[in-house]
Amino acid sequence: MSKRGISAFIGGLALGSAVGSAIGLLVAPRSGQETRKILKKSALAVPEIAQDISSSVQLQADRFSETTLSNWESTLTRLQEAIAAGVEASKMETTSSEQTTESLSTKSE
């Protein structure tokens, strides 16, 4: 989705929310005074809800970081083992090739 499409979506979402809220307030079965009390209580609860969400997001980010670090360390260990095995196999191949070359040289003399 392009930036323009995202902007249009967010704008439409905001406009729809505003229109829906206004219509909801106009057709609400409560009096204006009751509605204002409810809105005030809701507004007072927003910082606490935001704090709870922030804490949850931070906790999840920490867990994700720990998991990622653990996976990275495991991958790094496997990579080091694979490189060591490759180096060892290369040394063995080189030694085997040198012995074969010496054996052929000795036979041809």
TrEMBL record:
Q: Which residues cross the membrane?
A: 6-28
What residue spans carry the region label Disordered?
A: 87-109
Q: Which UniProt keywords apply?
A: Membrane, Transmembrane, Transmembrane helix
Compositional bias (Low complexity): 93-109
Query: One short Pfam family name for this protein?
Result: YtxH
Write down the InterPro entries for this protein, in alphabetical order. Desiccation-related_membrane, YtxH
In terms of superkingdom, the source organism counts as Bacteria
Residues folding into a coiled coil are: none
Protein's name according to its UniProt entry: YtxH domain-containing protein
